[in-house]
C-alpha cells in the first residue's frame, strides 16, 4: 500500500466555527463572538464600542479605533454563538466520525472556555467538557489532533492588552498551554500551536488594534516566542508529545517564464515559507531581515528570544491546502478571483469553485514536494476541502459527486507524492468534515462536510445531522487505506 499502515485519516474543524455553546459552561467571549455572518455580497463585520460608548461596525480585517472594545449586540446574529453545536452534539457527531472510520479528528480548544478572560483563571467546567470529548473519541479509537489556538483570542486580552501586540499575552498563552498539556497528557499526543499562523492579523484573530506591518510583525514575533516556549514546555511534560505548527500553504506559479514573473512568485512563496522557516529551522531568514531593514520595521526582542525560537522547533508541519495561485510582475496582466483569506490571481489552466477558488490537485503534490525538499520533517495535510452549495433531494439524500471528485483527485496527488516522491506524510484531515460556518464569509450554504447539518445562514434549522453521498465514499477510502478511490 502507498500510505503507511498507521496513516491518520480523519477530518478537521475549529471551535469558533463548529462548537457553539457561546457562553455555556462558564465560557467567556472571544473576538470571533463579535463577528457577524456574511455572504458572497455582504461582508462579515466586527461589532465594537468606541471610547465614548457608540456602537459601530467595521470589516473583520479592519483595525478598531484606539480604545475601542468588542461588543455583542443582542439583536445581531453571530454565527459562532451556535455554529453547528458540537457542544451539545459531540457524542452523536463522534459516533458518525467513527462510522466513517476516522483514525483521528482535528479540533481546536476554545481558549476562553478554559480561561474565560484568557488570564490565569481556569474554568473547570470547560476542562471537563474536553475531557468528555477526548474520552468519547478514544473510546472509538479516534486520535485527537488538537489545535491550541485557532483564529481567535479571548476578548478580554484583545480589549485590555491589545492582544498579541503585548508581550504579556505570551505568559497568558503559556499558562493556557501548560493547563492543557498537564490535564490531557495521557489523552492527546498530537498538538499544533497556532492555526494558519501566516494569516493571523487584526483584532479578529490576534486582538491587535493597529494593522500596520510593524504591529503585525511584532505580534508575529510574540507568536513565534510563544510557540517555541510551548513546544519546549510540552516536551517536558510528556516527551511523547508531537507538537507541530500550522500554515496556510498556497503555492504560487509564475504567470510566465519572464524572469520578473518568476521573481514575483518567489517573493510570494517566501512570505508563506518565512513562518515555517522560523518554526522549523529556528531562525529568521536573511531575506526577511533585509525586508525589515528596507521598510524600517524593528522587532523588539528580549534577551533569550532567539534561543527560545531555536530550541523550540516543531516536530511536524501541519498545513492547509485548498488552492494555488499565480504571480505576475505587471498587475495589469492579471484577473483576481476568490481565495483562502485573500484575493488570488486567476490561473487560465484551472477550473474554479463557486467561490472562485482554483481547483488544483497537482498543486497539492507540488506543495508536498516543496515542503519535503525544504524542511525534511513529517508533513500533515490538516485542511483540504471543497466549499459548495449542497441540495437536499426530495428523498433526503445529498448527491455531492463534485465533492467526491475533488477529494479523489487530491488524495491521488498525495499518493503520488508519497509513492513517487518519497514524501513523509503522516495524515490527512479534510476541512469541515461535518458542515460548519465558513470562516471567510460566515455562511452555512458554503458547505464542506461529509455530514449535512440542517442550519441556514441566518441561524435557522433543526441541527439534524444526515449523511451525504461523500460519507460512504470516504468511509471506503479509509477502509482501504486510500487504495480504493472509485468504488462506493
Automatic annotation (TrEMBL):
Signal peptide: none annotated. The keyword Protein transport does not apply. GO terms for molecular function: beta-glucosidase activity. GO terms for biological process: carbohydrate catabolic process. It holds the Pfam family Glyco_hydro_1. Keywords: Glycosidase, Hydrolase. The active site is at residue 383. It comes from the Bacteria. GO terms for cellular component: cytosol. Coiled coil: none annotated. Belongs to the glycosyl hydrolase 1 family. This is 6-phospho-beta-glucosidase. It comes from Isobaculum melis.
